[in-house]
Amino acid sequence: MTDDFTRSQTFDIPADYNELPWHRGFGRQVGPLFEKRDASGLTRAFRVEEHHTNGMMNAHGGMLMTFADMAWGGAVEKDEDTWWVTIRLMCDFLSGANLGSFIEGRGEVVGVADDIITVEGRIWTGDKLLMRGTGIFKLIPRRDGAPGRG
């Protein structure tokens, strides 16, 4: 990937979303990503940009799985100091999303066993369900000296 992919990105998002501060590493490559926190929980989102697409100019399945990991994993976060890794991610692809679509996703914790958390999740655009599935995540301690999301 090149550093010029941000030239075509739009930040046309609903007012209740904030950009995630992931400006380095893998988060930077797949972004920009957004989130909103409200009484119903955490919802993450992205707008399908050209660098998210497959040859048909739809959201690439790999991007949807990457986003599912980030959106559903967010269900285990208590705060920015909650660190987790993915043990297993199972996804059912139900529909596609065109270039420019605003995609949202969220997970719900359905099981906890010590530091292993099971989440059921959904990914959608508008009223169209794109993906559903299950993620299993493990909480891990934050490493001393490790940078934040920035």
UniProtKB/TrEMBL annotation:
The positions making up the signal sequence are none
Any single Pfam family the record assigns to this protein: 4HBT
Which GO terms of the molecular function aspect are on file?
Answer: thiolester hydrolase activity
State the InterPro entries in the record: HotDog_dom_sf, Thioestr_dom
Q: Which SUPFAM superfamilies match?
A: Thioesterase/thiol ester dehydrase-isomerase
Under Gene3D superfamilies, the record lists:
Hotdog Thioesterase
In this protein, which residues make up the domain named Thioesterase? Answer: 58-128
Q: What is this protein called?
A: Thioesterase domain-containing protein
Q: Which organism is it from?
A: Hyphomonas chukchiensis
